[in-house]
Amino acid sequence: MIIESRFHGPDGSGNGGWSAGIFAAAVNDRGPVEVTLRKPPPLETPLTAVDGEIRDPDGQVIAQVRRVEPIDAVVPPVDRPTAEAAAKAYPGLVDHPFPGCYVCGPANPAGLRIFAGRLPDGRTAAPFHAPTEVVPATVWAALDCPGGWAVIAPGRPYVLGRIAAQVTALPRPGDECVVTGAMVGGSGRKAEVHSSLYGPDGALLGRARATWIALPPA
Fold first, then answer.
1. What is the rounded distance in angstroms from the CA atom of residue 172 to the CA atom of residue 164?
2. pLDDT digit string, tens, across residues 155-170
3. Residue 45 confidence (pLDDT) above 70
4. Taking the complete model, does pTM exceed 0.90, yes or no?
5. CA dist list (Å): 95 to 55, 83, 115
6. What percent of the chain is helix, strand and coil (3-state, nearest 5)?
7. With 90 as the cut, is the pLDDT of residue 102 above it?
8. Is 118 exposed, middle or buried (0-12, 13-18, 19+ CB in 10 A)?
9. Is 144 helix (H, G, I), strand (E, B) or coil?
10. Residue 27 contacts residue 33 (beta carbons within 8 Å)
């Protein structure tokens, strides 16, 4: 498998959610699955799945993948107008640690452009227009950054460390969906978040729980 450069997150590496979705499908295409990222997913590099591990050509472990029990982490939905209003106050429009991110980067016109703003209760919400090509990794990607923006703050960037996702159904190309996220705990540099993806009819399409890790000060 190869993480194409268009699916990048932090500079020089793959978006965590998209990469995890690709890794999950390579090891077990029936969820729920948990992916732990051990190294930044390299771009345009042949990767192989060996005994539940994703390895690069040098044999280094990039990620570990395992089956998990059904995920009960669900962030309540909001209606589309509420999500659109939240997106207008998306902090990443002003200060983004990785502005070219495939999922949430405002400087990436070819990305998913999921801009999750904060709601009064601390949750995040964003509208999501499903792209013309939708695969399970698309749902993993959509569930990624909206959770992260529940904890990312100016001058305090985080990256995805682990994500467990359960995909119930894929949105159809062009569907107008909504994603919600919430911080549920954490300590030190680690933050625990949940996220959920809802279809145009309000159906729950996917859910995830994730661990985000704060980067040390530059």
1. 22
2. 889 999 999 999 999 9
3. yes
4. yes
5. 33, 20, 12
6. 20, 35, 50
7. yes
8. middle
9. helix
10. yes
